[in-house]
Amino acid sequence: MEVAAEAADGQEALTRLDSMAAHRELPDVVLIDLLMPRMDGATAIGVIKQRHPGLRVVVLTSFGEMERVHAALAQGAAGYLLKDAEAGEVVAAIRAAARGEVFLDPEVARGLTQEIVSPPTGLAALTSRERDVLVLVAEGRSNQQIADELVISERTARTHVSNVLRKLRLNSRTQAALFAVRQGLVPPRA
C-alpha cells in the first residue's frame, strides 16, 4: 500500500485527482474526511464518483451520526470508519474497497442495522441538523438559502431535505412545513 498524494480539503483533492487522471496515475482508493474547508466530504465524494466512477472512496471521520453515514454512502462511499479506528481497520477498509467491497465501522454498522430493525418515527427519526433543516424549510427557505444559513453546500442541503422528507414519509416541502407547524417547531403563518 502506498500513499499517492495528500490534500488539505475536498477541492484540492479533486484538483489532484483530475491531474493524476490526466497522467493515468489515479489511485485505487481515496481516504477522505467529511468535515473539510471549501468543500465538505460528502460533496467531494459525489464529485469524485461522477468524474472518476471507478475510484473507490473510504470515509475516515470523527462523525458517526447516521445522517452523515447516509450522506456519504448515498454519494458512493465504499467504506465508513471513525477516527478511533485501529490502523489494521483502516488497512482492511482500504483493501476491501480496492476489492470492490464495502467496509463499515462496527458502530456504524450497528446504527444502520438498528435503523432497519427498529426505525425511529416522527421527529425522533431526525438528527438535530435535519430538525434545523426542517425549520428552515417551514420558513420557506430554498436549498441555497438553507446551505448559506448552515454553511454547507447546496448539494448537502438538498440531501438533508430529501432525508427529512424520506424519514417523515412526506412527499413535498409543503407537507414538511405543515408537519413542522403541527409539531410546534415554527409558528403558523398568518
Automatic annotation (TrEMBL):
**Cross-referenced InterPro entries, in alphabetical order?**
CheY-like_superfamily, NreC/VraR/RcsB-like_REC, Sig_transdc_resp-reg_C-effctor, Sig_transdc_resp-reg_receiver, Tscrpt_reg_LuxR_C, WalR-like
- Tell me, which GO biological process terms does this entry list? phosphorelay signal transduction system; regulation of DNA-templated transcription
- Under the GO molecular function aspect, what terms does this record hold? DNA binding
Which parts of the sequence belong to the HTH luxR-type domain?
119-184
Q: Which Pfam families match?
A: GerE, Response_reg
Q: Which residues form the Response regulatory domain?
A: 1-98
Positions carrying 4-aspartylphosphate are D33
Q: Does the keyword Phosphoprotein apply?
A: yes
Task: Tell me which domain of life the UniProt entry assigns to the organism this sequence originates from.
Answer: Bacteria
Alphabetically sorted, this entry's keywords are:
DNA-binding, Phosphoprotein
PANTHER family named in the record: TWO-COMPONENT RESPONSE REGULATOR
Q: What is this protein called?
A: DNA-binding response regulator
User: Whose protein is this, by species?
Assistant: Streptomyces flaveus
